[in-house]
Amino acid sequence: MIPVAFDYQRADSAEAALAALAEHGDEAKLLAGGHSLLPMMKLRLAYPTVLVDIGRLNDLSYVRDGGDHVAIGALTRHRDIEIDPMIAEHAPLLARATANVGDPQVRHRGTLGGSLAHADAAADHPSALLALGGSVVVRSADAERVIDAGDLFTGFLESALEPTEMITEIRIPKHTGAGWSFQKFNRRAQDWAIVGVSAQQVNGHAQVALVNMHPTPVRATAVEEALANGASAADAAALAAEGMEPSSDLNASVEYRQHLARVLVGRALTDAGIA
Ligand SMILES: Cc1cc2nc3c(=O)[nH]c(=O)nc-3n(C[C@H](O)[C@H](O)[C@H](O)COP(=O)(O)OP(=O)(O)OC[C@H]3O[C@@H](n4cnc5c(N)ncnc54)[C@H](O)[C@@H]3O)c2cc1C
Predict the structure, then answer these.
(1) What is the extent of the structural domain holding 222?
(2) Rounded to the nearest whole angstrom, what is the distance from the C-alpha of residue 36 to the centroid of ligand 1?
(3) How far is the CA of 78 from the centre of ligand 1 (A)?
(4) What's the number of domains the chain is made of?
(5) To test ligand 1's pocket by mutation, which of 75, 101, 152 has the most ligand atoms within 8 angstroms of CB?
(6) 75 Cα nearest atom in ligand 1
(7) Is residue 126 part of a domain?
(8) Domain check: are 33 and 138 in the same one?
(9) pLDDT tens-digit readout, 99-158
């Protein structure tokens, strides 16, 4: 389908983009890689009247050492994350999750900020951010704040971002040398996950997040609590579908997703050396 008509503005700085958002409010949408927004517009599930193109803001594409964390610019493309040595050393889970996103074309266009702002429970990055305990730096024209991963995803394709706000940076705590795992079950290598799991050891405990098992990206709290109370990996993994409300679609029934979650969490915990 053809999108509803819109005005196009190319921002030449973050400030210009934020000024445009302040002016147009929820009539406007930021355009980063366009790999989620444009399909939504073609389906007329999104119909902004103003598109603010931030895709050329190269100063928001970087990976930097932030001391206790790795700082990643919101416009950093998936491919640049996949191959970055600092991310490989301190947050290999993020690199692996990114390497599993779509195909090379998608990974050369899509951005980390766009993926997190889109807040899709079926996407791989939100689960990695949750398991890694990351956060996002968010700016509006007159303020800046930091949102922890656990507070970012608020509903189906909904985030805690205001219409006037933009993610500028993603912060990932360093988990150097700690056990981790990313598991993704799909039909073909480039497909979205039918179910996926991110698992990370953090100071001796496990943080586990699920892909496509709930209307929002979500932590597997029943699994984490069982492990914290001394359960074996197998017993904890059996709780992977507790509290989840997965959908049924052409790829999988609810019951099949529940089964996959249990199997994949079990594999992830073993792979990460947890319990
Ligand atoms: C064929 C195909 C296969 C894919 N497969 C996968 C997959 O397997 N796994 C997966 O995780 N993803 C997959 N994706 C999605 C891909 O990762 C997208 O690139 C990503 O979800 C969105 O990033 P983007 O930069 O393209 O964002 P855009 O589409 O430009 O924007 C998405 C949303 O975020 C907002 N936005 C963008 N940047 C910012 C910002 N800095 N601050 C605030 N809001 C912002 C936009 O306004 C829009 O609402 C696939 C996409 C396609 C087209």
Answers:
(1) 180-271
(2) 4
(3) 10
(4) 3
(5) 101
(6) 41
(7) yes
(8) no
(9) 999 999 999 999 999 999 999 999 999 999 999 999 999 999 999 999 999 999 999 999
Mutation to probe ligand 1, out of 21, 30, 36, 80 (largest number of atoms < 8 A from CB): 36
Give the closest residue (by CA) to ligand 1 atom 36: 114
Could you tell me the pTM of the whole model? 0.97
In a domain, 190, yes or no: yes
The Cα–Cα gap between 98 and 78 comes to 6
Taking the C-alpha atoms of residue 269 and residue 199, their distance in angstroms, rounded to an integer, is: 7
24 shares its domain with 66:
no
- Kindly give the distance from the C-alpha atom of residue 81 to the centroid of ligand 1, in angstroms, as a whole number: 14
Give residue ranges with CB within 6 A of ligand 1: 29-37, 74, 101-102, 106, 110-111, 113-115, 117-118, 123-125, 161, 166-167, 192
CATH, residue 227: 3.30.390.50
Distance 65 CA to ligand 1 centre (A): 25
Q: What pLDDT is recorded for position 1?
A: 77
* Mean pLDDT in residue range 57-71: 98
Q: What percent of the chain has pLDDT over 70?
A: 100
Residues 139 and 72 in one domain: yes
Same domain as 150, residue 79: yes
Last residue of a domain, one of 158, 173, 188: 173
Question: Each residue of 175-210: pLDDT tens digit?
Answer: 999 999 999 999 998 999 999 999 999 998 999 999
